Fold this sequence. Notes:
Blueprint: E1 3-4, E2 11-12, H1 55-65, H2 70-75, H3 78-90, H4 97-107
Antiparallel strand pairs: 1-2
Zinc ion is lined by residues 5, 7-8, 10, 19, 21-22, 24.
Amino acid sequence: MAKFCTSCGAPVEEGQNNCTSCGAPIGGAQTQAQPNFQQQQFQQPYAGGVEQKSKMVAGLLQLFLGGFGVGRFYLGYSGMAVAQILVTIFTCGIGGIWPFIDGIMILTGSVKTDANGVPLKD
Ligand SMILES: [Zn+2]
């Protein structure tokens, strides 16, 4: 009884392991691809109990207490907060415009993350 290649349909002689036409293996020994186990990835970029700082709180703190760098301290930018305090002191308050503008920028969303790179929540 003649066999035919399951791949290309060409007649295959008895005893042959591979099709002479296309080279496919004969005898139903079709190789099955191993099913891949798909790893489920949970999209929780801030898992682990990392608390997101409030943009509103940070902005308002910076707006009203920016001369003391409170908003920046709240966000963890202690270096910038200290700089804002020093600038405010050494300019007799005139430099306080910087933390004031900074507070507006936080409220308007120009500052998107805290010092640890965690996005601010609304
Ligand atoms: Zn074939």
